[in-house]
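Possible regression after last week's pipeline update?

I re-ran a chain I had predicted before the update to compare outputs. Posting the input and the new output here so someone can diff against the archived version. Not blocking, just want to make sure nothing changed silently.
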Amino acid sequence: MDIKLQVGDETVFIDREHMTSVYQLDDIKNLAETAYRHFMEHEEEIIYILERDGRILGVLSIGDLERFYIRGTGAIEINSRYTALGSIDYEAAADFFRKHKTINELPVITDNRELLGVIRKKKENYLRNGQRDSLKYSRNGGVRYVKGEIGRFIHMARARVILYTYSNMNIVRHLNAKKRRRFLDRGNRKDVHLWKGLTEEEWKAFWQTEYCEGLVQEFQKERAEQTPILEKGVPYYSDQQGKYFHFKDGYRVTAGNPIGMNRRIIMFGPCIVAGAYCKDQQTIEAYLQNHLIRDDYMEWGVFNCGAYSPEQCYGHLFIQELAEDDIVVILCEEQWMPDKYLDQLVFQGDLTPDFLGIPNLEDYFVDVPSHCNHIVNQHLAERIYMDIRKTQLLDMPKTMGILASLQDYYINWDVRTYFAGYFKQYGLHREPDNVRTGAVVMNCNPFTKGHRYLVEQALGMVDKLYLFVVEEDKSYFRFEDRFHMVKAGVADLENVHVVPSGKYVISKDTFAQYFEKECVQTVESMDYDLYIFGEIVAADLGIQYRFVGKEPFDQVTRAYNEAMKRILPKFGVEVIEFPRILSEESGAMVSATMVRKAIMEKDTDLIKVLCPESTYTFLEKYLL
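New output (post-update):
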């Protein structure tokens, strides 16, 4: 390979013959898909596109492709405006790379537009992998979705909103090469005795004068106890009274909140807002509260609504009860800054320069800039406080604002992405509007004549019927067996589509109590399960009816039926409840519970009475 190395092996020249990033335009059927596969499989972050005569037409960078996905509209374009060298000039390349820290290669092109090769600068794995993750997330629509959701909140919010952005990647890029390598190398360490890959000396540098013997171990222990619990689609944390962390009512407590406060500054965002690697007294919120107290704003309290998840933290915006007097401060990475409604913000700022102005910055991160220490938090809190003072919101008279949330649940992008794959996997699609479509969600533990009756009654009202068989394996019979019994039990019926219920239709994530009926004392909310069904499943498949059997005994199922009647009509789904059928022999209602009892008692005659022939055949072969 004809490669020339610069001193330090930091920069190389690769001739055209040995490049894997050169494509002939005539060979490309789908430019976006070709570029995506290349960027995910190869190290290059620029592809070069040649005309039929072999001369270069233009380039497409990984950033160009990501912006295309984020934009979501229009055609992807080949970039004909780019910087190139006319010869293999390492000094000119080095000068260019110093001025443009986000670019790591330059093409070498003759006056006749002939591509000779590229001069490439080594790029850290952290940055390259980060680009891949960001590209994948953008391709799936995640970035566009979060941008749109933050914008939607700004547009709809009753409160006064302040938005800050920052760039993890740009902050790391601006560290000098030696410090950057040392910082990025933390993720490659194999020493299992080090938490987060930091040595004891690095933890001392991180904690500065706060460091003491055993601090890291105790801090690690308390962090391990913080497991978020999803409730109505947003993560909450269990109450905790630790040495360094205090959580109450789902959120981290802000140290120093004054007694008698009656006005609120509420902060939303990922780890940097939650203070993932700081004590209670060292979060941005705590330092901001100190500034307020110092300047005698004793009626103002700062509240921490941060979450340890950049993908899930913004759902809190929509379910948090807010009033017109509240000040909302949102922190997000710059890629998530919304395209619309910025004019409705009280203030907008970029915190990246504030990071870069801190000496010895690389010592104050654990692994990424948003996982920072108290020194960074102090600087950011001071900046935020100064900006809030400039808005004069702190001095405005209090009004009798009414608390209200924008909605009482939130569906994250990962749930929507899951269903896109789920529908594709099982070939599910929306029928024309004139096709009456219904659904039954059933566990069938096992499949009984009662289930068969419900299916027959439902099928008499619709043209197509979906049977979603609960996929969670927490029943007497395995899912595979229950699914087989349902398929066999309706095999003779037309227009019935039997599919697994998947991850979010009556599952441990959406309705855990369904699988704990025997020990349930008080039925908790199962609304989130139904919001997902209405907003995604019913909407995407055009389901107009949901059929259920009347439940006289089981309090959990009965409460679920009532919740269906309350929620699903909001999404245009009518809930139809059929009475249970009675056994002709015993006069009792047919139920799966009775069948399981008969199985344990080896009562084959009763099983034949309660189950269709297909179920009895299965039970006879495997259980009786």
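Follow-up from reviewer: compared with the archived run. DSSP finds 22 helices and 22 strands in the chain. Marking as no regression found.
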